[in-house]
Design goal:
CATH superfamily: Vaccinia Virus protein VP39
Bound molecules: S-adenosylmethionine
CATH class: Alpha Beta
Mean pLDDT: 91
Order of helices and strands: HHEHEHEEHEHHHEE
Strand content: 15-25%
Oligomer: single chain
Low-confidence stretches: none
Number of helices: 8
Largest sheet: 7 strands, mixed
Helix content: 40-55%
Number of domains: 1
Distance between the termini: 47 Å
Number of strands: 7
Length: 251
């Protein structure tokens, strides 16, 4: 019997990136609406900005920038923002949103986070909101290590995201139960979403969240200091760390 040939690692990586590009190009306008109308998400964005604590003139890299939910407020505080997103629809919307808000200092970069190559020590902060759970786990760890290189000593990595595991602790179970109950209350449409989300979650093709503990360990392993985690609302948390002076050494 003919067996399908296993995909090579670069092919698997390429497929994941292409899927994200397609998905978010279709969903760009819908996401902007969700982001604007979801107060919980606004709280996560505020927390990421507070923790990043931007100063005028800072260079900040926003990973998975969408249509500017973090990049525009950061630029309004005087930062120069390198805004990276895999979806051209998102970076186009970001450009028009920045122009509409009369904000300068946002440089859109249409590229996968996984391929980003920046000058070592060139960033004052690296931030991300609700994007890194789309990366495969090995790519999350690689990006955290890269961020340690891109940051100047004393620079900060701040990640806001859905952070929960697969039911291994009480917080995970509470989040999963709350999500399923909220959808179930919507009737047949909600039941369909439960089935769809469960399939995505189990196959880890679209969303691959990991726990606060897993993120904390990734930052510590990449050599970050002062690693801190804050639970913000329901599933969302913010994990941050500071790049120490001198060479970054993995623990
Ligand atoms: C849920 S949206 C969040 C957007 C924005 N950061 C916010 O706070 O609203 C996720 C974003 O991550 C981007 N994304 C997903 N995978 C990516 C990848 N591998 N490289 C770059 N961007 C990616 C998507 O295109 C999308 O714009």
């Amino acid at each position: 019997m003919l067996r399908p040939r296993a995909l090579t690692e670069p092919a698997r990586r390429g497929l994941t990136i292409a899927r994200q590009r397609r998905f978010w190009t279709r969903r760009a306008a819908a996401w902007e609406h969700t982001a604007d109308s979801t107060p919980g998400l606004g709280k996560v964005i505020e927390t990421v900005i507070d923790v990043a604590d931007p100063a005028p003139g800072d260079t900040i890299v926003d990973l998975g920038c969408g249509s500017g939910q973090l990049s525009i407020p950061l630029a309004q505080r005087g930062a120069s923002v390198v805004a990276v997103d895999v979806s051209p629809a998102m970076t186009e919307m970001l450009e028009s949103n920045a122009a509409e808000a009369e904000v300068e200092g946002v440089e859109p970069v249409t590229a996968p986070i996984e391929d980003l190559d920046l000058r070592p020590g060139s960033a004052d902060a690296v931030v991300s909101n609700y994007a890194l759970h789309h990366l495969r786990d090995e790519d999350k760890a690689a990006v955290v290590e890269q961020a340690a290189r891109w940051l100047r000593p004393g620079g900060r990595l701040v990640i806001g995201d859905m952070m929960f595991g697969r039911g291994g602790d009480a917080r995970d179970r509470q989040i999963i139960f709350a999500k399923v109950s909220a959808l179930a209350r919507r009737g047949p449409g909600g039941w369909w979403r439960i089935a769809k989300n469960a399939a995505r979650y189990l196959t880890r093709t679209q969303e691959r969240p990991v726990s606060i503990k897993a993120w904390t360990k990734m930052l510590e392993r990449a050599g970050f200091r002062q690693v801190e985690a804050r639970s913000v609302v329901s599933e969302a948390a913010v994990v941050s760390g500071v790049r120490p002076p001198g060479e970054v050494t993995r623990s």
